[in-house]
TrEMBL record:
GO terms, molecular function: S-(hydroxymethyl)glutathione dehydrogenase [NAD(P)+] activity; zinc ion binding
Quaternary structure (record): Homodimer.
UniProt KW NADP keyword: no
InterPro entries (alphabetical): GroES-like_sf (IPR011032)
Protein name stated in the entry: Alcohol dehydrogenase-like C-terminal domain-containing protein
GO biological process: formaldehyde catabolic process
Domain of life: Eukaryota
Keywords: Metal-binding, Zinc
GO terms under cellular component: cytosol
Keyword Secreted in annotation: no
Length: 101
């Protein structure tokens, strides 16, 4: 994150941080660069606002305006939940449906 900020353009560079830094270490920023016009901002989940955006996305999915089914790579039963975690850790699964039957 520090390298991204330091490589942004003087006077109008903008660094966008997505998600959470794994080790929760502070981001060291020279305030001089902020005063010279560089900016840093961040967001969780791409800036999605759950209370207002999820109902809209659900409606779009139900009306076939967006296709989410193509992102499902595996389906497992609840008793095989450990297989879902294994697939995730191995990098073999993008999205896994866990059936609770």
């Amino acid at each position: 994150m520090e390298d991204a900020f330091n490589s942004s353009r003087v006077n109008w560079g903008k660094t966008v941080i997505l998600g959470v830094e794994m080790h929760q270490t502070p981001l060291p920023i020279n305030t001089y660069f902020l005063l010279r016009g560089r900016t840093v901002t961040g967001c969780f989940f791409g800036g999605l606002k759950a209370k207002s955006d999820i109902p809209i996305l659900a409606q779009k999915y139900l009306h076939k305006e967006i296709n989410l089914d193509g992102f499902i790579t595996h389906e497992v039963n609840f008793q095989d939940i450990n297989k879902a975690f294994d697939l995730l850790l191995e990098g073999k699964s993008l999205r896994c449906i866990i059936w609770m039957d």
